[in-house]
Specification:
- By secondary structure, this protein is mainly α.
- It has two domains: 326 residues, no CATH class; 210 residues, Methane Monooxygenase Hydroxylase, Chain G, domain 1 (Up-down Bundle).
- It is 79% helix and 0% strand.
- The protein is built from 22 helices and no strands.
- The radius of gyration is 31 Å and the shape is elongated.
- The termini are far apart.
């Protein structure tokens, strides 16, 4: 029973560490979300700026998994090229080594427990100040992270006691098989990191085991190599339902880390002995002999390995890009599904907005194409071609319905996950936009049905009526083109002035047609049935234009 409780205590301590890291990471993303979006979305093909960006962001949010998932979402959203993504991922591997230094220098050099509760005392009032809430959450997360580390240290059994001699003997026996033992511990590190889903948490556990004398420097170094492979699983899971480019970015992370582990295994013994001599020179203690020297030595090893791996492979980004493209080739099956939004919510709340923006742009382009069917249907004389185009219109209407539901559901999840004020305004505007885009799709379909009914009832319009409807179609096309341009501008520098001018022009033209129609019906210029069909078409056009103009106004209102 005592053993079970001790295991649960350690699992709980690890859970507290992970939760503290998540709270701290989420708070930092809210604090710097807009800036991070600006940095990543402006990323160029320059491999070195990409590495620095990945390193900086991972240092900031303290999670290479979060950075990689963020990068995958940006690639999925079309905001970052595969080349740039690979560079950012390489930088993230360097940035994640900061966690090990924080733990080894702060967690083991002095007792952080003395400042944990004062830190929480300072953070708690900030939680109730809206403008400082994210800062308070960050401080709480920082405190929880080190509470978890403290609990891990205190909960870890003292393996120097006689009752744990069998455990030490077992680990020692696993370590006595030379190079095979190194490979075994690489595998163990990989599996444990896949289970925990955080290389930073596994690094903390490894450092605690080292400090307690449970494992030696060589074993710990092998575990770190496994953790480097295991950490890639998070991005690959997040990319499962993403597009091919995002899958390639996630696979590139795995390829990069596996290549690094392979060459490190080749030079493993001389490398760790070199680190050992460096620590002896700096601290006067040999990590091969003294357990207290291992945490700093392991942090040094972790940093040197990732810096060297990035310095070497950064020159081979084009080759890695070609390799993952060959493994995951292009396909033509994505035409009628969401291209940018991943299945489920990305772990980076602020950046979860970006895929939705790109999806809405694609939605807008789709409804523009759908609207272009209307003038074609109106003028088409061939019954067979008409039926084919009607079939396409019905298909587009089904797609717009599905897109509206899936984008709205995704945005609802994003808004529930905690966002900055600016991001919340964007989400609200985007929900209104997808609703209006779906309404445009419905209006296009209703127009197509009206034209189909006209043909089935053998209703014919005069040349003057046809010309006036074509003019109305042209005016409405101008409105949805303006809408599409504004959505493509990423919601910035958008003014509703032109949209309002177009709206006034359409409303005025609609009023002219309505007045003329009323007079024509009164004077029996055409039959009542013809008049109903005619008025229905121009009225539906005006209604469709209103939805397009509502979208521009929603963007403009959000900016103000």
């Amino acid at each position: 029973m005592d053993v079970v409780l001790k295991v649960l205590e350690l699992v709980g301590a690890l859970g507290l560490f992970l939760y503290g890291m998540k709270v701290m990471s989420d708070a930092l993303q809210k604090l710097a979300g807009d800036r991070m979006r600006a940095i990543l979305s402006k990323m160029t093909a320059n491999r070195f700026s990409g590495v620095l960006t990945g390193m900086g962001i991972t240092t900031l949010i303290q999670s290479s998994s979060a950075t990689t998932v963020m990068v995958v979402s940006f690639v999925n959203a079309g905001l970052l090229s595969l080349f740039g993504a690979i560079a950012v991922i390489m930088g993230a591997n360097i940035g994640t080594t900061v966690t090990a230094w924080i733990v080894s220098l702060l967690g083991f050099k002095f007792s952080i427990a003395t400042i944990i509760f004062p830190l929480i005392a300072v953070a708690t009032p900030l939680l109730f100040i809206k403008s400082r809430q994210s800062l308070g959450e960050f401080l709480i997360g920082f405190a929880l992270l080190f509470m978890g580390l403290e609990a891990l240290q205190s909960g870890m059994p003292d393996f120097r006691q006689p009752e744990y001699a069998s455990v030490l003997q077992f680990i020692s026996s696993m370590s006595d098989h030379g190079y095979l033992s190194i490979l075994l511990f690489v595998l163990i590190g990989t599996v444990l990191t896949v289970v925990v889903q955080s290389s930073s948490a596994m690094m903390a556990v490894t450092l605690v085991m080292c400090s307690q004398g449970l494992i030696g420097f060589q074993t710990a170094a092998a575990l770190v190599l496994g953790e480097n492979i295991g950490t890639t699983i998070t991005a690959n899971i997040s990319a499962l339902m993403a597009n091919n480019t995002a899958k390639r970015a996630a696979l590139a992370h795995l390829v990069f880390n596996v290549i690094g582990v392979i060459w490190m295994l080749i030079v493993f013994h001389p490398f760790i002995h070199g680190i050992s001599r460096l620590i002896v020179y700096v601290e006067g203690q040999d990590p091969m002999v003294t357990a207290s020297a291992i945490p700093v030595a392991l942090s040094c090893y972790h940093s040197f390995f990732n810096i060297l791996n990035t310095s070497i492979l950064v020159w081979f980004i084009p080759q890695i890009e070609k390799l993952v493209t060959r493994i995951i080739p292009d396909n033509d099956e994505e035409e009628f599904r969401l291209k940018f939004i991943p299945q489920g919510l990305m772990s980076t709340n602020e950046l979860s907005i970006e895929p939705a923006k790109k999806e809405i742009e694609a939605f807008s382009r789709r409804v523009v194409r759908m609207y272009d069917f209307i003038p074609e249907l109106f003028e088409m004389k061939d019954d067979k071609k008409f039926e084919q185009l009607m079939k396409r219109t019905r298909k587009y209407e089904e797609i717009t319905d599905r897109m509206e539901v899936e984008i709205a559901n995704y945005l609802t999840k994003v808004s529930a996950s905690g966002l900055s004020l600016g991001a919340s305004r964007e989400v609200s505007a985007m929900l209104r936009i997808v609703d209006n885009l779906e309404s445009i799709g419905d209006s296009c379909y209703q127009l197509s049905l009206s034209i189909e009914a006209k043909n089935k009832q053998n209703i014919s319009f005069s040349e003057d009526m046809q010309e006036k409807l074509k003019n109305m179609f042209s005016h409405v096309r101008e409105a949805i083109e303006e809408m599409n341009n504004n959505l493509s501008a990423n919601y910035h520098d958008v003014s509703s002035d032109k949209a309002k001018e177009i709206e006034t022009k359409i409303n005025t033209y609609r009023d002219v047609l309505r007045t003329e129609h009323t007079e024509a019906v009164k004077n029996h210029v055409y039959s009542y049935q013809v008049g109903i069909c005619y008025s229905n078409l121009y009225a539906q056009c005006e209604k469709l234009a209103d939805f397009a103009i509502n979208i521009t106004e929603a963007i403009d209102k959000m900016n103000r």
